[in-house]
Structures are given as structure tokens and as C-alpha cells.
Amino acid sequence: EAGVVQSPRYKIIEKKQPVAFWCNPISGHNTLYWYRQNLGQGPELLIRYENEEAVDDSQLPKDRFSAERLKGVDSTLKIQPAELGDSAVYLCASSRGYQGKSLFSYNEQFFGPGTRLTVL
Amino acid sequence: SQQGEEDPQALSIQEGENATMNCSYKTSINNLQWYRQNSGRGLVHLILIRSNEREKHSGRLRVTLDTSKKSSSLLITASRAADTASYFCATDARGYSTLTFGKGTMLLVSP
């Protein structure tokens, strides 16, 4: 089974330039996540999709960040314009989603290798 | 915001020794998961413990959960150099399907 695929792996841009990241989740995984991980920190959720619907984007800086998952499969995260503080690793993850809605449902996430963004 | 706080921030041991990492969290949870991240790589799921479980084992890993103290520990026995990585706890709060990660413990295992 192929894992979560992300591209590019590395990106260096000048501030104020646009940048886009692409993610292809594991086949059959309905839930897709974008995280940002700053150096020395854990991942922080930017947006979560259930199929093609963004169900949690409360942490997405909407003035400059946008995301889409048009057919409920692969997804693109865009930053326009990029700022120096956007330098981080952007991780994509996918999961099957909850196994029903019982108390003991779980949500194991599978992560891609990430895109390391450097804004100069 | 990050709910979990791992302790210690960094841990350095010799091969063969045991490594213990702790995680504290703030709100009620459905389950708690531990992930490993090797340098420059994505995160890999290690083990999940549900809120009604107190201890769980997987190979050389042992996880405990104390919901009254809102804390968990991860024990890696007989550590190997390949265990060198950052370890994160992640909580899945009741009613949500979003994981909240801590800041991680950086483990260095020397040969």
C-alpha cells in the first residue's frame, strides 16, 4: 500500500511570492489533514477535510492561506503571499476517519514526509 | 494551541537502557496516541491507548494512561540507536476527530 505522497519535498522562495503544496492521501482514506510544524514543535492542524468538505479550518490563516480538495482525493495547500514566518514543514496526513461514532472510535493518522518551506 | 506537554524535552541514553517519556494534557480525551518522527521525516504512529485502558504493550513499547492525572508515559525498553528520534503524544478529545500534538521529546540513543 502506497503511503501519503507530498510534493515538493523542499521549497525555497522569496517573501511575498506564492507557493503551493500538493498531497495525495492513502487510497480509501476519507479524511485529510494539513499540519504546520515549526522547528522544535509538534504539528499544528491547519485544516481537516472529510471527503471534499473542509470541516475544521479554524486554525487556517485565511488572509493568505487557502486549500482545496476538489474531488475528495488529493489536496493542494497554497500560501499567497508568503511571509518570513511561514518557514516551516508542512505535513499532510490521512486517515480512514472514525469507525462509527462510539466512544471507542479511533483515528490513527498516516503522515507524508512533509514539505520543508524556507521563505527568504 | 498544543494540549500535550512532553517531559523531558530531550533525553540522552546508551543502547540497551530504557527510555521513559511523559505526556500531560489538559482536557478529557477519547484516546491518546504516540508518534515517532525521525529527522527530516514524517510522523509514524506507534501506539494508541483508549481512555478506558490503563496500560498497553507493543513490542518494546509500553504505554500507560492515568486519566485522573491527565498524563501518559511511553517506555521504550532495551533501546537501540535506531530509536533515536523525536516522540510526540497526541490527544483525541471527545467528540472531535482532530489530534492535538505536544512539543515532543527528542531521544538520542548512543551506541
Describe the structure.
- The complex is a heterodimer of chains A (120) and B (111).
- Chain A is mostly beta strands.
- Helix content of chain A is 0%, strand content 46%.
- Chain A contains no helices and eleven strands.
- Chain A has strands at residues 5-7, 10-13, 19-24, 31-37, 44-50, 53-56, 65-68, 75-79, 88-95, 110-111, 115-119.
- In chain A, strands 2, 4, 5, 6, 9, 10 and 11 form a seven-stranded mixed β-sheet that branches. A four-stranded antiparallel β-sheet of chain A has the order 1-3-8-7, with no helix packed on it.
- With 111 residues, chain B is mostly beta strands.
- Chain B has no helices and eleven strands.
- Chain B starts with a strand and ends with a strand.
- The mean pLDDT of chain B is 91.
- The chains are: A mainly beta (120), B mainly beta (111).
- The A-B interface holds A 4, 31, 33, 40-45, 48, 56, 91, 93, 95, 97-98, 103-114, 116 and B 2, 4, 30-31, 33, 35, 40-45, 48, 50-52, 88, 90, 92, 94, 97-104.
